[in-house]
C-alpha cells in the first residue's frame, strides 16, 4: 500500500475517470477533445505542484504549448481513461510534462495505450499575472536524459518563435441557403464555427480559460467540419503542435472556427482558429488566441478507416493551403516511418 | 468576407453546438428547454456586446421578456443546432433580439428551421445592479423597419405592464399514496415540481441566474407533467410570452412547479411557476419570480402527433383555468391561420 | 516509473481532479456530495474491474452500502482531490472497498486527509440485471487481515438486514406563507426538497443511477436544510451508514427530502429520504429508494465551528426523532473517543 507522503513527492500523477455519454459522439466514440482536456488537467496539476516547491511567489502553471499528439486507438463510453503525467524536463522558465493515456475496459479487462503527449507549461505568479516565476530544477536519472530534454526544449523554443498565430480572416459559419447552393466537398461547404460564453468552471484560479477547455472546443469544431465533409462517423487521428500565444480571460466569448485544408485518401486536415472577444471590456477588441491543425479519419461500423471524399478546391488561396497541408502530411508520414524503423 | 474588427460592430452572432445525450430525453428528442437556453445565451451575448459599445458603466444584458415561441420541428442527439441572433430594435433602455434556430443533421445534410424567437433585454450596470444603462441606438435599413420595431416595443411594453405574475398557491408534488389513489388524467395526478439549488454556472457575472437556465428548468417540469399525463414521448410545441419580473440571485433554491390547465385533441397546456427562496437571507422570503404556459404534444415512434387523453377536471378552479386555456388555444390557432393566409 | 501493466493488475486505483467552482458552495468549500461522488466512482471502477477478472458473465459493481464516513477537513476550490481505492475484502457475492481522500493545495503544497470511507459493492450481470455474479477471491497479506475483513462483512450484513428503509411521510418543501409564519428553528421551517429528472450522464451502462449521483443529491438537500436553520456557512461533518436497498432506473424523477432531527451545541443531524418515481411506467408507483442521516456543522469566516441554534421541537414525533438522534450522536462521540484512546 502506497504511503501518502511518497505519492505526493514523486513528480508524477495519475488522473482517471469513467467515460460518460456526454464525453462521446452518437456512435459511442469518446471525443478527442475530452481526452485532450484530461491530458491538460494532469499537466496543469503536476506543473503547478512542481513550480510551488520553492519559497517565493505562489504560481499556477499555464499551458504554453502541446507537441504533436497522435490518437492511436478509439476510446468508448464506459471505459476508464487513465491519464498519467510526469515532469521530464525543466528549463529556467518552463516545464516539460509527458503524458500517457490508457483506455481500460473494466468489463473485458482490455487495455490499450491511446495517446502520448508532451506539454510545455510556464509558471505564472498568482499575485501578478504578467510575471513568470523561475522553475525549480528536477533531478535526472542520467546526464543523457537531461541532454535529450535540453534538445527538445531548444527545438520547441525555436518552433514557438517561428510560429506566428495565423492571423487570417475569421471563418464565418455559412448560412443555410448559402451552404445548400454550394457544391458538396468544397471548403466553404463544411466550414463551421462554435461560439462559447466562458463560464466559471472553464477557468483557473487566475481567471483564465484552461488550455484543455480551449482544446476541447477546437476538437469539437474540427469534428463538425469533418462530419459535414464525410457524413460518416469521424474520429480525431492527431493534432499538430499547438502554441498558446495569448491567454483568454473570464467573461470572454470564444469563437472557434474550422475549415478543411487538405484531404489524403484516408484523412482530413482541418485548420482551427480561436478568437476571444472580451464582452464587457469591448475596447480591448477581439483577438486571435490560438490556431491549430487537427487530422481526422472516417470510420465504418467496425471502426475500420473509410476512404475520404477529396476536397474540391476553389481559388488560389485554397490551393496554396492544400499544398501546405500536403507537405505537413508527407512530413508526418515520413517521420512515422522513420520512428517505426528506429524501433525495429 | 468580414474583417475581424467589423465582426464586432455588426449586431449579429451565431452560436452552434452539437446536441449531446444530456440535452435530450430517453428517445433522443432534444428538450425544448435546451434550445431556449441556447437562444437566451445568444441573446445575452449580442445584447451585452452592443450595450458596451459606448463609454460609461460596463453592463450585462438581462433578459426581461421572451415573446411567444413555437417549436416547429423536433431536434435530435448528434444534430448541430445553429442559433443566430440579431439586434432588430433598441429603445432608450431595452434591446430587441431576433433569434433563429436551425437544426442540421451533419450526416444526411438535412436542415430545418426549428424556432424563431424574439427576446427583450435590459442593460444592467455591473457596478450597481439596480441601475439600468442607456442603450446605444442601432441603425435601421429603412424608416419602415424602425417604425415596425417601435410598434413591437410599445406592444410588449403594454403587455408587460398588464401582466402580473400569477400568484397562486404553490403546486406541491403529490406524495405516493395520493398519486396512486387519484384518478388518472386529473390535474393532481400529473402535477410536478423540480427543486434546484442555484450553482455558479447557472449565473451571470452579476450573480443572477441566466434567464435561459430558468427557462430550461421550466420546460423540464412541463415535460414531466406532460409525460405523466400521456405516458408517451412528449415534446415542447410552444411557449407563451414569458416576462421576467424579478431576478433570482446566486444562492437561492428554485422551485419550479407545473400543472396541466388545458387539453385539446392533440395538445396539452401546462402552467409553470418559478419560486425563488433565498437560502441564507431568509428574511427576504420566498417569492414568485416567473410564470409561463408551455404547450406540449405527444408523439408516436415515427414522430407523428398522437391524440392526448382529455384532462379530467375536478372543481370550479380547474374548470375556470381550463376555459382560460381554451381561449388561449383558440386565439393562437386563429393567429396561426391568419399568419398563414397573409403569407400566401 | 510504474509500468503500465502493474498499475492495472494491483487491486488499487487513484482518481484525482481539480476542484472547480461548480463543485463548491459560494464561500468556496467543496460540497461533501462532490467528494462522496468521487469516492463512489473510484469504488465502482475498482469493484467492476475486479469482478470481471474471471470468465463468465460480464458485470458491473453496484453500490450496496457505504459505512459511516467522516469529513475531517474542508476542501477548497483549486485544490486537487486524490481519491485512492483498494479492495480489502471479498465475500462470495460482495466486495469491500476502502477509499482514502486527500486534499492537496498544489500552490502551498499543503496536504490533508479529508475522508476515509468503506463501500460495499455487489456485481450485477450486464445480461440479466437481476442476477448477482460470484466474486473472485482476493489474496490477503495475512490471515489476520482476512479474519478482520470477515468480521466487518458479518457486521455490515447484520446491519443491512436490520435496517429497513425508513418509510415515513414524504417531506414537503414548505411554501412561502407557511414558512414565514412558522417560528424560526423549528423542523418545518428548515425542511427542504430537491427534485431531479435523471439524465443519461447520471446512469451506469445498466441504466441505473450511480450511487454517487444519489449521494451528491442527498448531501445537497441536507446542506440546504442546514443553511436554512443556521443562515451561515455550513459543511458536511459526517454521513451515517447508507444502504442502497432499491435501484433507481433511467427516466425516473427523484425527490430528495431532508428534515432536521437533532442539534447538539455544534452540530446538526439531518434525515434524508430519496424517493424514485418512474415517469412513464407509472403503474410501478413511487418508492422509497434510500434513506440516511447527514451531520453538518456551521463555520465562521476562519472555518472555525460556530454554535448551532437549538432545534425547536413541535409534537411527540419530533421529540422522539430528536431523542433517537441524540442517541446516535452520543454513540458516535463515545466511539470516536474509544478510537482515539486505542490509537494513543
TrEMBL record, chains A, B, C:
One of the protein's GO biological processes: lipid metabolic process
Enzyme Commission number: 3.1.2.2
Location within or outside the cell: Cytoplasm
UniProt keywords, alphabetically: Cytoplasm, Hydrolase, Lipid metabolism, Repeat, Serine esterase
InterPro entries linked: Cytosol_ACT, HOTDOG_ACOT, HotDog_dom_sf, Thioestr_dom
EC category name: hydrolase
Name of the featured protein: palmitoyl-CoA hydrolase
Source organism of this protein record: Danio rerio (Zebrafish)
Phylogenetic classification of the source organism: Eukaryota, Metazoa, Chordata, Craniata, Vertebrata
Gene: acot7
Amino acid at each position: 500500500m502506497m504511503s501518502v507522503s511518497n505519492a505526493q513527492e514523486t513528480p508524477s500523477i495519475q488522473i482517471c475517470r469513467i467515460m460518460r455519454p456526454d464525453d462521446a459522439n452518437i456512435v459511442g466514440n469518446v471525443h478527442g477533445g475530452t481526452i485532450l482536456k484530461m491530458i491538460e488537467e494532469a499537466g496543469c496539476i503536476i506543473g503547478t505542484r512542481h513550480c510551488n516547491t520553492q519559497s517565493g511567489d505562489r504560481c499556477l502553471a499555464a499551458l504554453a504549448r502541446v507537441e504533436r499528439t497522435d490518437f492511436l486507438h478509439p476510446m468508448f463510453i464506459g471505459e476508464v481513461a487513465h491519464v498519467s503525467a510526469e515532469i521530464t524536463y525543466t528549463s529556467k522558465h518552463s516545464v516539460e510534462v509527458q503524458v500517457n493515456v490508457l483506455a481500460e475496459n473494466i468489463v473485458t479487462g482490455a487495455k490499450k495505450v491511446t495517446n502520448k503527449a508532451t506539454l510545455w507549461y510556464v509558471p505564472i505568479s498568482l499575485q501578478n499575472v504578467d510575471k513568470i516565476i523561475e522553475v525549480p530544477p528536477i533531478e535526472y536519472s542520467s546526464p543523457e536524459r537531461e541532454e535529450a530534454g535540453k534538445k527538445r526544449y531548444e527545438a520547441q523554443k525555436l518552433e514557438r518563435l517561428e510560429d506566428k498565430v495565423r492571423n487570417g480572416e475569421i471563418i464565418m459559419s455559412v448560412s443555410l441557403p448559402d451552404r445548400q447552393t454550394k457544391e458538396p466537398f468544397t471548403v466553404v461547404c463544411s466550414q463551421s464555427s462554435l461560439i462559447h460564453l466562458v463560464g466559471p468552471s472553464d477557468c483557473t484560479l487566475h481567471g483564465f480559460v484552461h488550455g484543455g477547455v480551449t482544446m476541447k472546443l477546437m476538437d469539437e469544431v474540427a469534428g463538425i467540419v469533418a462530419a459535414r465533409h464525410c457524413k460518416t462517423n469521424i474520429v480525431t487521428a492527431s493534432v499538430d503542435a499547438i502554441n498558446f500565444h495569448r491567454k483568454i480571460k473570464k467573461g470572454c466569448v470564444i469563437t472557434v472556427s474550422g475549415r478543411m485544408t487538405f484531404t489524403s485518401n484516408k484523412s482530413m486536415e482541418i485548420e482551427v482558429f480561436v478568437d476571444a472577444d472580451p464582452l464587457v471590456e469591448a475596447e480591448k477588441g477581439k483577438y486571435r488566441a490560438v490556431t491549430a491543425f487537427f487530422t481526422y479519419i472516417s470510420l465504418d461500423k467496425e471502426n475500420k478507416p473509410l476512404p475520404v471524399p477529396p476536397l474540391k478546391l476553389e481559388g488560389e488561396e485554397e490551393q496554396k493551403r492544400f499544398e501546405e497541408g500536403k507537405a505537413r502530411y508527407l512530413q508526418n508520414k515520413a517521420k512515422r516511418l522513420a520512428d517505426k524503423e528506429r524501433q525495429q
